[in-house]
Amino acid sequence: MAILSTACGGGGPSGPDSQDHSGPLFSVSPMPLETIHQISPVGSNNKIFPVGHTYWLSCDEQLSWGGTPEEQAANPDCHLERQVLVAPGPGVVRWVNPAEDGAVTVTTPGGNYDWTMGHVTPLVTEGTRVTAGQPVARMLYRHGFDFGVLQVKGGKVNGLANPERFPPYPPVHPISLYGEPLRTQLINFVPTVEGDKLGKQHWDVPGTAMGAWFLEGAPAGNLLGPHGVPYNLYFGRFTLRQSVRFVAVGRPWPGQVNQTLTLDPAGRDWEAITPASGRVAQRMWHGTQTGLVTQFEWPAGTILVEMLAADRLRIEWFDTHEPVTEFTAASRVYIR
């Protein structure tokens, strides 16, 4: 699925009313529980930076795209249908992209949150008041849709070492806005095996290598869309298995097969690399974008990293697992 940089676009943080809200905001699943295959945590690692919205799937993506009709029909956990999606709770439709591959943004009572469904065909118009369970859109794809929530009032800053790089509103997992017992029922569809079950988007640790970086000399402005990928660099932990660390490079070096490389288990934590560390060589391996499988039979070279200052570092990738100590003219400088 295509990525919506935080939750699928939209306007400002204004809400439908000003009353305080207490208790769960959501009470209805947007799709029937019996048709849910999987719900991703916030922070999926299928792009350079962790994704700010979630994916709600009614069938495994590989099976839905590559499986035969017979294989799909034989899997009881695969429900391929352009389902009608309903509002998880009340609110006012604040923004609509009316295209077939469109989006719907709704502001919750009190105006604290905006939720967005993406890769959908809207069934409502801007200004409509919706109630929990009311149809609001139809899935574009037969296997799932994007669902994001931004805390537009009362939230902390977005979690970056340089907050100006991203929109100011932190993403939260839609499940966090549900009450029991539906909250637990939905959490059971989230496949996280280590760490925060519902995930998070930003992992920056100021003064260390951990988190988001941008190529020195990159254009000013928003670099979150596809146009910004060549300028992006990310040192992080896989959201599904947070003990496994990786680096994602928006513009790979010549010979670098994959953008995302998994750090050797014996490597130094990104949070432990600081300006005092000097040059640090890290052996890398190929693996899956989920971090659940590291392919130790497939070496992925070595990266040499040196933090030049708290907000500036040099990095280079080498196609070897032999010791590396010196940068070449192919090295790059990234800044926060």
Give the class-level CATH name of the largest domain.
Mainly Beta
Strand content: 25-35%
**Considering the protein shown, what is the CATH homologous superfamily of the largest domain?**
Glucose Permease (Domain IIA)
> Per the principal axes of the C-alpha atoms, what is the gross shape?
globular
Helix fraction bin: under 10%
Class based on secondary structure composition and strand pairing: mainly beta
Return the string of H and E elements.
Answer: EEHHEEEEEEEEHEEEEEEEE
Beginning-to-end CA distance, first to last residue: 28 Å
Q: What is CATH's topology name of the largest domain? A: Glucose Permease (Domain IIA)
Q: How many β strands by DSSP?
A: 18
Mean pLDDT: 90
Cα radius of gyration in angstroms: 21 Å
Number of domains: 2
Number of helices: 3
Q: In terms of per-residue confidence, which ranges show pLDDT below 50 for 5 or more consecutive residues?
A: 1-22
List keywords for this structure.
31% strand; 18 strands; ten-stranded antiparallel β-sheet; disordered N terminus; mainly beta; 336 residues; 2 domains; 5% helix; eight-stranded antiparallel beta barrel; globular; single chain; Glucose Permease (Domain IIA)
Layout of helices and strands:
Elements: E1 38-39, E2 54-57, H1 61-66, H2 69-74, E3 84-86, E4 91-97, E5 102-107, E6 113-122, E7 129-130, E8 135-139, E9 144-151, E10 171-172, H3 182-187, E11 211-215, E12 232-237, E13 245-249, E14 260-263, E15 279-287, E16 294-309, E17 312-318, E18 332-335
